[in-house]
Amino acid sequence: MGAGFRVGIDIGGTFTDIALVDATGRLEIRKIASTPDDYSRGIAEGLAALVGELGIDPASITGIVHATTVATNTILEMKGARTGLVTTAGFKDVLEMRRLRVPVLYDLAYDKPPPLVPRQFRLEVRERLGPDGNVRVPLDESDVAAAAEVFRRAGIEAVAISFLHAYANADHEIRAEAMLREALGASVYICRGSDILPEIREYERTSTAVVNAYVGPVIRRYAEALEARLAHIGITAPIEMMHSGGGIMRLGRAVTRAAALVESGPAAGVIACARLGQGASGTANIISFDMGGTTAKAALVENGEAARTDEYEVGAGINLSSKLVKGGGYPIKMPFIDVSEIGAGGGSIVALDGQGRVTVGPQSAGAFPGPVAYGRGGIHATLTDVFVTLGYINPETLAGGSIAVDAEGARRALFEQIAGPLGQDVTTTARGVLQLAVSTMTRAVKAVSTYRGRDPRDFTLVAFGGNGPVVAADIAAALGIRRILVPPAAGVFSGLGLLRSDAEQDFVQPVLRDAGSLSADTFAALGEDIKARGRAAMEAEGHDLVSANFRLSADLRYFGQAYELNVPALTEGGVAPLIEAFHAEHARTYGHRSDSDPVQLVNLRLSIRVPAASEINGFAASPAMLRKDRRVDFPGGTLLSPVIGRDDLSSDWRAGPLIIEDYDATCVVPPGTDARLMADGTIEMLVRGQ
Amino acid sequence: MSMQPDRRIDPITLEVIRNGLASIADEMALIIMRSAYSPVVRDIMDYSTGLCDADGQVIAQGLTLPIQLCSFPRVMRFIRERFGEGLRPGDVLITNDPYGSGGQHLPDIYVMKPIFHGGELAGFAATVAHHTDLGGIVPGSVAIYATEIQQEGLRIPLMKLYEEGRPNQSLLDLIAANSRQPVEVLGDLRAQMAACATAERGLVALLERYGRIDLRRYIEALHDHAEAMMRQTIRELPDGVYVGEDFLDGLGEAPEPIRIRATVTVSGDTIDIDFAGTSGQVAASINCPISLPESAAFTAIRCLARVDIPNCEGYFRPITVRAPEGCLLNPIYPAACGARGVVGYRVFDAIMQALAAAVPERAMGGTEGGPYLLAAGGQWQGRSFVLNEMLVGSWGARADRDGLEGVSNPAANLSNQPVEMIEAEMPVEVTAYGLVPDSGGPGTFRGGLGFVREFRFLKDMGFTLRGDRRTHPPYGLEGGGKGGPSAHHLVRRNGETESLPTMPMRGFSAREGDRFRLVGAGGGGFGPAFAREPARVLDDVVSGKVTIEGARRDYGVVIDAATGTVDAIATRTLRENRQ
C-alpha cells in the first residue's frame, strides 16, 4: 500500500501491541504497557519511541489501523454518556423489561443488569406506525419538544430514538432527530434505531441504539484525543478502526457506529487467521483459537471467510456464542464475527469449592497481581502456575528473560490450595486441571462448530495469543482435530490482523417476502438497489471501489421461524438456487429440512470489501533467548523434552515431545504430535492417529 | 468438606463430564429455539431440553424452564415401564397425555429419543415443547372452562413416533389433521427431533471418549454428588413441620378461593411435602397432574440452595412429594388440565411461604403468579393465526434487595413475544407494554413492579383468558406488603369498560377496535415498608416507579414535589405517628 509504513495498534487491558510494516512487507512488533487512564497517551508514546528507534519519518506513516477495548470497558465499567431515550408512547419500559429471560436457573439472588438509560430519561412521544410502515398516529411534535427540554435541563449527552416499526418507515425518527438536534445543539450525540439497525424486533433494535448512544460520546472523545496526539508527533495518516465484523472503517464512521467496536480486538485475530488460510499455509477451513491472560476465544473460518453472527450481548460475562437469549448483558445486533469466549486464560484462578469441586476461572488474577509464578504478589494458583508446574512453559524466565518465574511458588500454591485438600500429588492435580481447562475451552470451540452443525475434525486449528500454542495440541486431541498451525508472532497476532484487514462495510435491506413468489427481475432489482446504496455510501466516505469485492447474501427462514440462516446469493439466475441453498444449509445446521414449507426472504445483505491489507513477508529478528531442555509432565508421562527456537525447526517433520519457545509465546508439541516449519515461518503440527 | 466417596472417581474428570453433559443440553435448547416455527417456542421459549441416563434419570438440563425440566423423570418412568427392553436404535417416543403417560397438559408434547452405543441403551434425549394448537374447543387448546380432557384436543398416549428410523406417518398425519396450525406443529416437532439427534451425537462422542462403564460410574457419582449437596442444603434448614398456604382466586363470575396447602416436613437431611388439605379437583381445566406439583416442589427447594448443585436427578432423592388422589394436585381421569400451569406456580408459592418461616433470608416474596394467558385466533390475510400470550414479569423482594421487574418467573424462564412480530403476523396491535407504578409490594425491600400489556383488536375475534392474583395478590414476607393486584379490562370501542373475571369460564368476543388491557400482579415486599431508606423511596419516585402519593401512603416518606427531595421532618413525623 504505497511506499510508506502502516501501523496496527491493538489495545488490550494489560498490553498494547504495535505492529509496523514497511513497504517491503517487513514487520516490526512491540508490546507496550496500556495506559487505561487515557489509552491514546500510551499509543502516542509507544509510537513516538518506535519511530525514533527505527529512524522513521512520522510523515511516511500512511495508515493507522486500530482495535480497542474502550467501547467494551465503557459498558463494563458503566462509564458511558448520560443518555436519554425517546420511544413510542406506551413503550418506554421495553428497554428495561428486555426479553425477560435470566441467564441462570434456580438463583433467587440474581440481579438484572441495570438499564443504560434510567427510567426518568426514557421519554414517550405520541406516534404510531403499522408493520408496513403506514402512519397510524402522526408524530406529535409537541411531545418531542417536551422531551428535548427535559434532556436539555438534565444535561443529557446522548440520545437514542427508537419508535415501533421504524425499520419500515424512518420518517418519524428522522423528524424527531432533526428537532432534537435543533433543540440540543451539535454536541449531543444522537442515534436512531432505524439508522443503526433497520430490522424488526423492538427490544433488540432499541438496545442496539442505546448501547451505541451510550458509548458514542466516549468514542468521539477518544478519537479526537488520538488524532490530536498523533498529529502532535507528526503522524497525520488517516486512522481506521476494526469493527466487530472484521473489517476496518474510517474513524468518523466508527464514531457514528460506536457499538460496532466492542469486539474489535478479537475480530482482528480471526481476520489474521482467515488471511493466513488464504496464503501459503494453504487451508480455507480454520478454527481460530486465541488464548490470552483472562479468556480463550474460538471462531470458525470457512472457505476463507470468518463465520458471522448478528447477535451479541456485551457485558454478559462469558459469551458462549450460544445465542440462547440469556439476558445477562446488553444486546447489540450488528454483524459480528462469531467469536465464542470462555473465562479460561493464563491468569484464570484454579479453585476448590466446599463440595470438593475443582474449577478453573472465570475469576482471573489478571496482569496484577497475576499468577503466583510471576512473583508479583499473586497468591491464588492459576492456569499459568499449572503450565509452569508441568513444565509446559519455562520455569525460570519468560519473554526472553524479562520476567523471572517462581516455579517453586507456583507448585506450592497448587499443592496447598488444590492437590493437598484432594489428597493428590501436585503433578496428578496439575495434569487434571489442565484437562479440565481443556474441556472448558473445548466448549468454546464447540459453540462455533458443532453448535452450527460443523464437525471440528474437518478444520485446521490455528492457535495464537500468549497461551494458545501452549494448549493447542491438547485442544486438538480432545476434538479429534489433526492439523494445527502456529503462526509467527503468535503472541501479538491480533495486531498483525489489523494490518491484514480490508475496509469492509455491511448493508442490509429488509425484504420479508415469500422467496418463492419473487420473480427473477424483482430479485435482481432488489440486489441492484442495495448495491447502489452501498456503493454510494462508501464512495461518499472517499473509498475507491475499482477493486472492491461485493458479497451479496440473504437471510432466509421457513415461514414461521424466528431465526434466519445466511447463505450467499447471486442476483442473476432467479431465486430458486437461493432457496435450495437455504434448504441445504438448514439441513446442515439443524439436521432437518422441509422442502414443502414456504421459505421467507427476510433480508438481503451486502458486504463491500475494499482491499487495504498489507503484504507481510518477513519479521524483524527477535532477541536471542537462552533455552535448555527440561522435564515435562505430559498426560501420558514425564519426559525430557528438547527446548528449541522456532528457527531451529526445519521443513522436515520432527516428533514431539518438543517445546518451541518464542519471545512472545511458547508452543508445546506433546508426544504423538509432529512439528515442522513452513516457508512463511508458521509452525505446522500433526496429531498422529487423528 | 465432603469428598467423593468412590476413590475411583477423579473429581476433575467428574467436572469435565458434567461440562460435557451440560453443553449437550444447551446445544439442544439452541437448536429448538433457532429452528422452531411457532411464536410460543421460538419467541416465548416455552420448551425444555435435558439428557437422561440409561435408567431414565435426568443428568443434565438446558437453560430452559425448571417447571418443565423437573417433569422428565415421570415421563421416563412410563417409558421404562411401557417399553422396557423394547426400544431400538432409531426409535423416537412421543406423548402429551397427562393420564398414564406422565404428561402435564395436551399442548406440551414430549419427544424423547433412546440413545444407543455399541448395541446397548446408553441414555435418552429429552425434549418438551408447548405446541401452538392441538385442537379442542378453543384456538391454543387451553380452554379454562373445559371439564373433560376429551374437550381439550388430541391425546397422544406414549407411543413411537419413529420406529428404527422409520417415521410413523399415520401418527404425523393424525396430529396435523387435529391442529389448527399444522405447519407450526410439524415444524416444532422436527425441531425437537433435531435436538434429540444432536444429543445422540454428543452423548456417543462422550461414550467414545470415556467408555460406557466409566461414563456410567461417573454419572452415578454425579447423582450421588448432587444428592449429597441437596442433603447438606436440607441439613442447613431447621427441623420442623412448616405449613404454607396459598390460594387461587377461583373460577368464573363469582369466584370461590381454591386452597393449595403444603405441609413441609424437614427432618435431618430429608424433606417431605404433603399436599393434603388442598382443594379437590374442579370442573375446569386447572386440574394439575402430579407431574407438575412434583416439578414445582423440586424447583422451589432447589431455589433455596445456596450452592450450585448439578442439575441431575440425584438431588431429587431426599425429597418426597405426596398429594391425595382426587385433589387439585392429583386429579382423577378425565379431569381437564389445559390451564393447570397457574396451579404449579401456586404450589411453588405455598412451599416458598412454608420454608420462608424456616429460612427467610433465602426466600422471596410472591411473584406475579405465573404466566397470564391470552389466546385468540382466526383467519387473516388468507391464513389462520393463533395468538398465544404467556405473560410474566415480576419477582418478589428478597431479604437484602428489591424484587426484579421485567423478568421471567423464577420457576419458568420464559421470554416475551416482540410486539413488532405480533403485529407483523396477526391482526392485533399492542398499544402499551410497560411497568405499573406503585404496584410493587411495599417493603424495606420493594417487590418488582407489575406490568401492563394492552391490545387493540384489528378485526372481530374470539379470545380466552386465564389470570390469577387479583383477590389473592402476591404475598409479602417478614412484614412486607402484598404486590399490586392483577386486572383484566375489556375497553369497548365506545369507551365502555368491563372488568373480566380472572379465570373466566367462557370465551369472549371482541369487535374490531376494542381494547383488552391485562395487568400482571406486582411482586410482594420484604420487611416493613416504613423501614425502607427514604433515599431508596426517593429514587423510586424519581424514576416513576413509585408516585409521590404512593411514597406517602405506602412508605411514610414525604417527597417535596417542587424540590424533588425528601422532607425529612415530615417523613419522621409521619412514620412515628403511623408506627
TrEMBL record, chain A:
Query: Where in this chain does the record put each Hydantoinase/oxoprolinase N-terminal domain?
Result: 6-183
Query: Which GO terms fall under biological process for this protein?
Result: glutathione metabolic process
One Gene Ontology cellular component annotation held by this UniProt entry: cytosol
Q: Which InterPro entries match?
A: ATPase_NBD (IPR043129), Hydant_A_N (IPR008040), Hydantoinase_A (IPR002821), Oxoprolinase-like (IPR045079)
Q: Where is the Hydantoinase A/oxoprolinase domain?
A: 205-505
Q: Where are the transmembrane segments?
A: none
Tell me the GO molecular function terms.
Answer: 5-oxoprolinase (ATP-hydrolyzing) activity
Domain of life of the source:
Bacteria
What is the name of the protein in this document?
Answer: N-methylhydantoinase A
Automatic annotation (TrEMBL), chain B:
Spans traversing the lipid bilayer? none
One GO cellular component this record assigns the protein to is: cytosol
**Pfam families listed in its UniProt record:** Hydantoinase_B
Please provide the Gene Ontology terms (biological process) for this protein: glutathione metabolic process
Instruction: Please give one Gene Ontology molecular function term for this protein.
Output: 5-oxoprolinase (ATP-hydrolyzing) activity
What InterPro entries does the annotation carry?
Answer: Hydantoinase_B, Oxoprolinase-like
Domain Hydantoinase B/oxoprolinase residue range list: 10-528
From the Swiss-Prot or TrEMBL record, give the protein name: N-methylhydantoinase B
